Amino acid sequence: MTEHAIPLADAYRGGMRQLAAGVCLITVNHQGQPGGMIATAVTSLSAEPPTLLVCINRNASMFAMLIESGQFSVNVLAADALALVEMFSSSARRHERFNSGQWHTGANGAPLCADSLVTFECRLAQTVDWQTHAIFLGEVTEVRHPRSNVAPLVYYDREFHQLVDIVR
């Protein structure tokens, strides 16, 4: 507990709101069915071999798809991607997700967002179970830079921002 007697879990959540994070769209193709979800728990793990770490809640509709397909892509979103974020964050809009925007199919079969800053195609190398989530280690097999000259979308204090507008 903190000095103000706030329960640790609440203090943790409040503290994590102060950690700005890039916004990614994780995509997968499982048996011809595309899937996607928004994630901020994505980070570089290793350069040799190039590996990303992605944390996903077990309750996410994409969880089983990702495990069973063994492949996924991480699309790092630009500041102008709020419409995609809204669509991929709503389970009610699941059937609409890949009907708008421009999509390509990656070498691993996953949908690639043509408007992303960078896209990493990954082979699932390992899964580590941890409580309500799993940590997916994705060995990067392809990297594409469709729009590396635009501002990234950042999640900070429960809101989405352009990188420049969170500097206070």
Task: Describe what is shown at a glance.
By secondary structure, this protein is mainly beta.
Element layout with pairings:
Blueprint: H1 8-16, E1 21-22, E2 24-30, E3 33-39, E4 42-47, E5 50-57, H2 63-69, E6 71-76, H3 82-89, E7 103-105, E8 111-113, E9 118-130, E10 133-144, E11 153-156, E12 159-162
Antiparallel strand pairs: 1-11, 2-3, 2-6, 4-5, 5-10, 6-9, 7-8, 9-10, 11-12
Keywords: Oxidoreductase
Pfam family, one: Flavin_Reduct
Protein name: Flavin reductase family protein
Key features?
seven-stranded antiparallel β-sheet, three-stranded antiparallel β-sheet, 3 helices, mainly beta
Q: Mind explaining what this structure looks like?
A:
The chain is mainly beta. It is built from three helices and twelve strands. The chain has helices at 8-16, 63-69, 82-89, and strands at residues 21-22, 24-30, 33-39, 42-47, 50-57, 71-76, 103-105, 111-113, 118-130, 133-144, 153-156, 159-162. The chain has a seven-stranded antiparallel sheet with strand order 3-2-6-9-10-5-4. Strands 1-11-12 form a three-stranded antiparallel sheet, with no helix packed on it. This is Flavin reductase family protein. Keywords: Oxidoreductase. Residues 16-162 form the Flavin reductase like domain. Belongs to the non-flavoprotein flavin reductase family.
